[in-house]
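Slide 14.
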Amino acid sequence: MRSYLLLPILALLAACAPQKPQFPMPDRSATAQQPARTRTISSDPTPSRTNTSSRPAPSTSVGAAPTAPEQANSEWAVSSIKGKFLDIDTSAVRIYLSITTTQPNGQPMSVETFRERFIVNYVMYPDYNNRERLGYGNIPITPESIQKIDDRLMLTFTLNRPKGATNAILLTEISETGTGKKSLNDLPLRFKPTKLTDQYAVFDATGRLPQLRNFVQAKDTFMIRDVPGTKKNLYVYRYKHEFDPALPPMTATQRPAPRTLNIDTTMVVSTNEPIRLPGEGLYYFVADTTDQFGLGLMATDARYPKMTRPERLVKPLLYMSTGTEIAELNNTKEAKKALDRYWLSLMAGNEEVAKQAIRAYYNRVEDANQLFTTYKEGWKTDKGMIFIILGSPDRVQRSRDREVWVYNRRNNLSEVNFTFNRKQNQFVEDHYELVRYSEYQPIWYPIVEAWRTGAIRE
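Slide 15: predicted structure.
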């Protein structure tokens, strides 16, 4: 499905006795010096995690929506839906749905195939806990309403504001006509904008297609635009900060108190005009310098969400490596050769198994970057960590501020749940933190060990 630059295996090495894998705990005792120019963040992008003693309980929701692509199957199916709304004015909103599909040959569908095989319906509720219908109907699938972007489809439609409603939950149902199978997406709507992102989003260079993601490649030209095409100046802050990767799901370690981030560059841009950023980093767009919430956007290298540079390929191995292994990989002057030795030593010198394990692991890293990038790379997020090690959840239960990922069978347990709580964040709206439990340890380590022995080679 994807093409990857895989590490060439240079030599077969003898097997080494594996250590018990665990995350190396980074030194967090040092405090950053106060820079000449800083911007105080209203909420720490990497806040403290708390640990409790009880097992996470699933939440109930209007509908469950997969947040990660499923494996290719022999059916015509919708495997994920990502939604975004933009206020047109106080009377209507524009809805954008990015839809990932598969068909029997394993490839994404064309617009024509989707139109032939699927119907789309919607219903609006006042809230997740209120089933009173504010509105419902069918979304016509026409050449004007749906377009193909890379390997995804973009469905666009407009909804009028229900009388008297300030907020709503939009539940979209995409049904395959042959089997009746349904895929659901729930999207909170605000009909009176309270944030910049209620009105503005990142579009391609033509201003026609929203990107529905929190990153652009630094070389790309894009627009930040609203539906009416309003001209507006935005103040931009650029941060060149290396954010920490996720902590283990069973740790009780807490992050330090909120901190400031160094401002590397400031600039002013205009909405609805082409923009090209000066380089990689985290960019923060605000309409006013006193605003508490704006639009955060990562500018990445030209290969992202793929990772190909040896020094960058080392970093995601944190989730399946010992502290000693990571230290050796980080301290080497020949990262490429060190990576070859690392994988071959884990796979008892079996070159073919090593290649398959490399492909499987970095496929997941790329998918995590594509799906879960926020103010930092997707693989560094809590969701990205769980996705890389365990894969796509079997189902997802969502409420307004919570997602529960349910895995039906892992490590001989009938069901394993991972609960993610939405946390307020000034850069992005989809910042979630995992609720950590010590009871995850007997689940986590055997799956990590399966990676280390080459048992996972999807």
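Speaker note: The helical segments are 111-117, 310-313, 323-331, 335-346, 351-372, 382-390, 441-452.
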